[in-house]
Amino acid sequence: MEEANVTIFSTAFVAVQKVYYPLLCVMGIPANLFTFYMICFRKCGMSNTAIIYLSCLALVDTFYLVWVILVDLTLTFWLLQPFWHSYPWCAILGFLQYGSLYSSSWIVSVFTIERYLVLRSTAAKQHFSQARVTKLTCVAIVLVSHLASVPLGWINTVTPVDLTVDGVNMTLPRCHYRNEVYTTVIVWITTFLSGGIPIVLVIIFNYLIGHHLCRATNLFTKEERRAMHGRSTRGMLKRTILLLGTVSVTFVVLSLPRFVTYCILRTKYNYEDFNRNDYSIPINVAGDLANMLQNLNSATNFLLYCMVSRRFRQELVQMATCKAKALELGSILSHTTMKVFSVADHKASPSSDPVAVVLTNLKPTVERTRKKGQGSDYYLERVNHP
After folding, report:
1. How many Å apart are CA 216 and CA 7, to the nearest integer?
2. What does pTM read for this prediction?
3. Closest Cα partner for 112 from 133, 93, 135, 128?
4. Distance (Å, rounded) from C-alpha 373 to C-alpha 212?
5. Neighbour tally for 308: CB within 10 Å
6. Which one, of 266, 261, 259, lies nearest residue 200 by Cα?
7. What angle do CA 96, 196, 295 make, to 5 degrees?
8. What is the DSSP code (8-state) at residue 377?
9. At 11, phi and psi to the nearest 5?
10. Span 282-297, pLDDT tens digits
11. Which residues contact 274 (CB under 8 A, 6 or more apart)?
12. 85-94, 134-143, 240-249, 348-357: which range is least confident on average?
């Protein structure tokens, strides 16, 4: 009876994954591409650095969904012999998968560190606020991530495996984990570089950002905080930090279970005869659920921005309803004007010593010079510059 229950559960769990992963691709890939468009080409109230980091994150998450969810997991559940169960695709797919995983994790980590440095140092703010620096940083993250994923092309090998399909025995090539010492070392290093270290960095620097903001807030009175609340630069910084906090917390919550279960699988159950597809073993169920959560992290950007960013929602509604984009209020240019106040309705005679009046954008001081004309007095404001 217990064995029958386990079989029913295994069948149901596999059926859920067969639906879950294709659905994640159908919804996640278009959502990430649409998010990239919204961030780059619509005014969503984000700073220039946030636009670059978050748009780059949307792209690498899209590649992760393609390589891991679509090509690997979806085809595994729906096709008997996917194309990557042969050379050289077995090695290439591992390289592409971990390259996109590294890129996604470290973009979130570097963005978190950069926001903390900007809050702490004026020099760092001037340096990192340059769009060129941010673009070079994102390009470097992606390139280094793919360079670090090159050894992952060696952890799998293709060997013939005897399988029973619909009661028929057959031998098919399979791309599977290579049971070697150096493979285990590479996998452990990868586990910490893609999960452990980024998670720790995000937690630490998010705490430091929150602590710094609390200390900075306590330095001002309620009236001063109310006066600073309306400043556009400060408001944009707060919105950026709110977005970053939401993205980074989601990254930690969805990635941490995968890191924990993977460590358990690679220590207690790290032997060749262990059947990873046996769902009667609790760690296999926990491992697959953790995989489902981590993979969900790459498809949630659009929902996160909709929940957190009011400007993102406004742009989305305007675009969905085909309304004209609202004009943003620009700053009003201040002009220095010269006013002549007449105290009598008589014509004044020209003065022998005319007053030179110069208009400037500098804040002037006004000196009133009294002039006498024929039967009338008038005042002329004279602009004196510092």
Report:
1. 58
2. 0.75
3. 128
4. 65
5. 16
6. 259
7. 50
8. E
9. -65, -40
10. 999 999 999 999 999 9
11. none
12. 348-357
Dist. CA 78–CA 143, nearest whole Å = 32
Phi, then psi, of 237 in degrees rounded to 5: -65, -40
pLDDT tens, residue by residue, 171-187: 888 888 887 888 889 98
Give Cα 132 distance to the centre of its chain: 18
* Residue the block writes with tokens 């990868």: 190
Least confident window among 120-129, 194-203, 341-350: 341-350
Angle between helices 89-120 and 232-265 (to 10 degrees): 140
Q: Which of 14-18, 190-194, 229-233, 374-378 has the lowest mean pLDDT?
A: 374-378
CB 156 within 8 A of CB 91: yes
Instruction: Extract the tokens encoding 217.
Output: 């807030």
The two tokens of residue 160 are 């013939």
pLDDT: is 374 or 286 the higher one? 286
Interacting residues of 148 by C-beta distance below 8 A, sequence separation 6+: 98, 99, 102, 193
Q: Dump the DSSP string for 241-292.
A: HHHHHHHHHHHHHHHHHHHHHHHHHTTTT-STT--TT-TTSHHHHHHHHHHH
The dihedral through the CA atoms of 9, 15, 18, 20 has a sign that is negative
Rounded Cα gap, residues 67 and 94, in angstroms? 9
Residues 6+ apart with CB under 8 A from 235: 229
Angle subtended by helix axes 232-265 and 48-64, to nearest 10: 30
